Amino acid sequence: MSELFAPIEEVDVEEKKRGIPGATILKGAATVLATKIMGKIPEGDAEFLELVKESQTSTAALDELVKQEGGEDLVNEEVKQFGEEEVQKLLKSNQSNRSRRKNMPMTQPNYMEYLTAACAEWILRMSCNITKNANPFGTGRKALEINDETLTQLAQDPDALGRAIRNFQSKKSTYKAKHQDQPDWEQADEYVEIVETLEKLKALRTTVPAGRKGVSIKKALQFIFDGVDETENLHKEESMQIIDACRDLAKGVYPQEFLDMVEAQNAAKMAEEDEESVYVEE
Prior knowledge:
3 domains
C-alpha cells in the first residue's frame, strides 16, 4: 500500500478542535468509513487502486471514491438531527480541511485525514439532503476541468497558455464579484474548480524570456506586494499566495498578471513612439 503514498517519517497528525456541536459524531462516522476504504487498498483491484491514486489530486475522483464505497453508510441518523446552522458550519469546516490536506504532501496519514474530511462532507450531504451543485446559489455547473492532453499542449504554447490563464483569472474575478456577498461562496464547487484549474495553468509557466523590456525581479516584487496590508492583518490564504508567488519568482517564474501588465505597458509605449515618429515625419 505504501507505494500509493508519499514517503514520510513517522509523525502524529493532530487536528485542532473545532468546537462545533456534532463535530465528534460526524468525525467518528467519517473515520469509520475512511478506515473501511483504506482497509480495501491491500486487496483492491487495479481499477480501485487507480481511483485511489487519482483521488489524491482530483476532487471529482475523491467524490466518486467516497460515494462508490460509502453507499448506505453515508446516511447517518444522528447527523440527520443536526440543525441547519450546525450543518453549514461543519460542511465549511470539512471542505476547508479537505482543501488544506489536498495541498499537503500526500502521505498515508495525510491521505487518511483528506479522505475522512471528504467522507464527513458526503455524510452531511446525504444525511441532510444537501445537493452538491456548482455553487450553493442555484446556478448551473460549468465544465471547467482541463485534461492532461490540454495541459501538455498549453505547456508548448506560451501565448495560448497566457490566454488560458487570463481566461480563468477573469472567471475567478467574475465569480467573486457575483457571489462574494453570499455565505461560503469560496467553498462552492465551481469556484474551487476555477482556482484549482488556474493553479494548474500557472504551474506550467516557464522562466520569462530573457531581455523582455520592463521585467525585473525588483519590479515583480513591487507588483506582488503592491497594496498588501500590514502583516498582522493578512489572512492565511493571502499570506500563502504571497509566499508561493515569491517562491515562483526565485525559480524565475514571474506572475502572469505582472507579465501581462508589462506587455500592455510596452505596447502602449510602442504605439506612442509610432505616433511621435509619424508626427516628426510630417
